[in-house]
Amino acid sequence: MSQKPIYVTQPHLPPFEEFLPYLKEVWDSKFLTNGGPMHQKFERALCEYLGVNQIALFSNGTLALLTALQSLRITGEVITTPYSFVATAHSLLWNGIKPVFVDVDPVNLNLDPSKIEAAITPQTTAIMPVHCYGHPCDIAAIERIADTYNLKVIYDAAHSFGVEADGQSVLNAGDLSVLSFHATKVFNTFEGGAIVCKDAKTKLRIDQLKNFGFVDEVTVVAPGINGKMSEFNAALGLLQLQHVDEALRLRGQIDRQYRQALADIPGIECLPPSPGSKHNYSYFPILVKPEFGGSRDELYTALRRENIYARRYFYPLISSFPMYRALPSAAPANLPVATRAAEQVLCLPIYPDLTSSQQDQIVDVIRAQRR
């Protein structure tokens, strides 16, 4: 058994001494929150790094999703994926919106554009796709559908920091894109999130909504929420930006080593990289197919016995939870690809500090488990 647990991801943190000047700057300014100088510096730096026009910081990605929907005044029904983290659909329920689940593409496990039009009703107001595992959705196809039916598009881009498709940031797609900076993400601020938008007017509304709806000291224009990012989180984000390129390089190296090592194991299939895209290697999912000779759950258990904490992302499907499963769109018969993926996918550990020997250990357990 491994002496030290190997988790599916671990936060990548810069040396603590590099953080001290940022902490001192926050301390000296006596600005701890409410859009202070560190917050403003971080927003500008993110816009430059990510190649986006406007970005509004949040204390976490879930509040950013909630506010994104509110900012566009989304109501009625929203078409989304069952194959994601529960925050995607929860943000709809919190806003009194009915999720309508559509099956996913068998290659990249993103929302399948060919299934979207059949799910549109007179009550449909938006589409909320997810760039699953950081693999870009079929942005052009989704945009064509949205334009045809006059629908808004809000991308859950929680996995997609720094991801590009055809030389452009995927964060510029749709009406809004929502990022997560949670500790487990490629780029983190301990806790945090953001909404990417195209213009200053939209950002102003988002900034008001994340501060209880305040316009000024005595004027409240909407039932907003407290979603502001603190100066400490913004400071960490500024520091992390200096190290993120190296973290992405190391993740890419780990991704390549996995693909080479797993290539000759029957029944283990790696999700292919999306053509024409710049990836961030946020996760390393494998599909455990029948040819492997054992189930995904048996492999999951075998890895855990060796202190290797792979994760079944995403299992169970969102559509199977009690608050969703009564919806007609949640029936497993409507979601065959997502249902099969939830039974086969296992995300292996991937983070910059994962060593080659640890990767070899993980692959050895997988190889030994095949029957």
UniProtKB/TrEMBL annotation:
Its EC number is 2.6.1.-. Keywords: Aminotransferase, Pyridoxal phosphate, Transferase. This is DegT/DnrJ/EryC1/StrS family aminotransferase. Belongs to the DegT/DnrJ/EryC1 family. It comes from Roseateles paludis. The lineage of its organism: Bacteria, Pseudomonadati, Pseudomonadota, Betaproteobacteria, Burkholderiales. It comes from the Bacteria. InterPro entries: DegT/StrS_aminotransferase, PyrdxlP-dep_Trfase, PyrdxlP-dep_Trfase_major, PyrdxlP-dep_Trfase_small. GO terms for molecular function: transaminase activity. The keyword Cell wall biogenesis/degradation does not apply.
